[in-house]
Design brief:
171 residues; alpha+beta; three-stranded antiparallel beta sheet; 34% strand; rod-shaped; transmembrane helix; transmembrane; membrane
Length: 171
């Protein structure tokens, strides 16, 4: 009787290569899925954080303002009279929030406009609506923000629509 030779047969090599290939395909697929999911989560977080921050700034400025300056307020711009940022020798100043290109800007009197939203997001909707609640004027703010998806890849698509209402505390 012949002794079996020690070593690996061609069948065993093919089975090992097949199992190894299958494991590598599964691991690689998982890594790509994880990277895509992480990118999508970061994009969604960027859009939500940017829009929440802008909404908080606008509502806080409305609440702290003396009143809403109606002559320069429109559906896409709000002007506020405030005691917060007066120029030297002045008691009051005016601040404006408006859409400049696809970003939101704040302009304080006698200063250049400042972008409130980063370049990575674009504002597709900014509407200020006057709402009367009793004898008091409130402002409802509708804000729509998208991620600036220049590559048109699905993991870079995210949008959020926020609505808030604020009124001046200085009745």
């Amino acid at each position: 009787m012949k002794k079996p030779e020690k070593g690996i047969s061609i069948i065993e090599v093919l089975v090992y290569i097949g199992v190894f290939s299958l494991i590598m395909v599964i691991v690689t697929s998982f890594v790509f899925w994880f990277v895509r999911s992480n990118t999508k989560a970061k994009v969604m977080r960027e859009v939500l954080d940017s829009s929440k921050r802008v909404m908080e700034i606008i509502t806080q400025e409305i609440k702290e303002s003396e009143y809403i300056y109606l002559p320069t307020t429109s559906a896409t711009q709000i002007s506020l009279k405030t005691k917060k940022y007066p120029a030297l020798g002045e008691e009051f100043s005016y601040i404006d929030f408006y859409l400049c290109d696809s970003r939101i800007c704040i302009k304080k009197e006698s200063q250049d406009p400042i972008y409130l939203t980063p370049e990575s997001v674009e504002v597709n909707n900014l509407v200020f609506t006057q709402v009367m609640s009793g004898d008091y004027l409130s402002i409802r703010i509708n804000l729509g923000v998208n991620y600036n998806n220049v590559s048109n890849r699905p993991e870079y698509e995210a949008s959020v629509d926020l609505t808030s209402t604020a009124s001046s505390r200085s009745y």
